[in-house]
Amino acid sequence: MLKIGDVDVKNLARFENMLGALGTDAPKAMNSAINRTGSMARTQVIRSLSKQTGLPQKTIRKAIKVKRSSWDDLRYSLSASGGDVSLKYFKPHETRKGVTAFVRGQRQLYENSFMKGGSFSRGRVALNMGGHVFQRIGPERLGIEKLKSGVVIPAEMVDGASAAVFEETVTEHLPRRLDHEIGRLLGL
After folding, report:
1. What is the pLDDT confidence band of residue 92, given thresholds at 50, 70 and 90?
2. pLDDT category, 173, cuts 50, 70, 90?
3. Which Pfam families does the entry link to (predicted)?
């Protein structure tokens, strides 16, 4: 039985005779079907993660790395690394009460946090801090810490809607793609 990651794809036993008829071209058909299905699944995972976390799709696309299948190694994998994502990437806006950011599908207020210096009445001065959100932790001038969102992309990938959409896409599309590639190579 074929496996893509941890997803068991059922009903592929019917392709054994056709793959046997292909001979040495069988890995070529399987490779092409796995890569095409994996690319479809990647797109769906990125869309799902964007809704699940509140991050823009562009940011998630940069975070997810792909290892495509080859004739020798018929595995397609999606991976991500990293830790807690900074609030900078969640469309932050500074208000009088603090900074609001769009985390996990809703705008949240982080009280007493800031992105710029100065008072609202005299005008805010942009700090050269790269758009990050900070909170004061002590009375000293530089007693500040960078705020994080609590969103970890690798953990979000294997949990919830993104994991379900990956399994669903692979289960639905891989048998059709494999049938198409075998038919193309056999001339059916």
Report:
1. very high
2. very high
3. Minor_tail_Z
